[in-house]
Give the backbone structure.
Amino acid sequence: MSRVRTLLLFALVTLIFGTAFPAVKAGLAYFPPLLFASIRNYVAGLLLLAYVGATATYRVPVSRADWTAVIAGGAFLIGGVGFGFVGQQYITSGVAAVIFSLSPIVIAVLAWVLLPAERLTGRDYVGVVLGFLGVAIVVRPDPAALLDPELVGKLLVFTGVVVIALGTVLVRRSEPALPVPALTGWAMLLGATLQFCAALAVGESIAAIDVTPAALLTIGYLGLFVGAIGFVSYLTLMGTVGALNANLTTYLTPVVALVVGWAALGEDVAVLTLLGFGVIAAGFAVLQRRELYAELASYRGLYR
């Protein structure tokens, strides 16, 4: 793939994932949150499996490892998205995106616990501390106002980050042979079913869905572009530039979410939110310093 096409793909992934948070925020005007998450994942999962059916021969879980990964992915990796949808009722899309930027750091911590080959050492702990300090700056918990809706929303989104990260690590630990698009498609259907059951359990009603052209457009965008096209584009990018460079989109999507949320939804951008985001990004840089240094060294070698 040419350098220009790679840059365009990087920009596409960043734009799609960055606009996902404002799209969720806008869609909450038409859907109860858990039903919203469930419908979105059903649409995305079916589209992904249709793509798998047209492009792959290994399409369904076969081995125990495959099934373990699908269950872990559905229950945690996809199921955890529901926390984010519920939390975004109370906070801006930009704040939600900033909190989600902690994901690579949480994954590193859980991998250290659950994957023996991936251990934190030395200055890695500094990166972890910086990451959680950044989230603390964004969340700013106040013991005197623990039931404040905004604080509850931030904590729900943070809980979603942890649950999704746990699902990511458990899927990796399972070592499935099932191709990632197929694995994700089946996990989305399972996660959507769990979210639907949870929605009914907490009293969400299908009758509360306001079926309008804007609602259908939101579901279509989140299901087709974010869930299917965005995911396949991210996998393509990761295969082209490597996991580290692809993960850098995690630290550009909040910028897109903050700008789109401000321009399209009239959301305020707090200085402390920007500060917290900078501290989280610094934590990622410290945690991934060896990989970043090696990547920079390879680029320097191209121009010698």
In short: The chain has 14 helices and no strands.
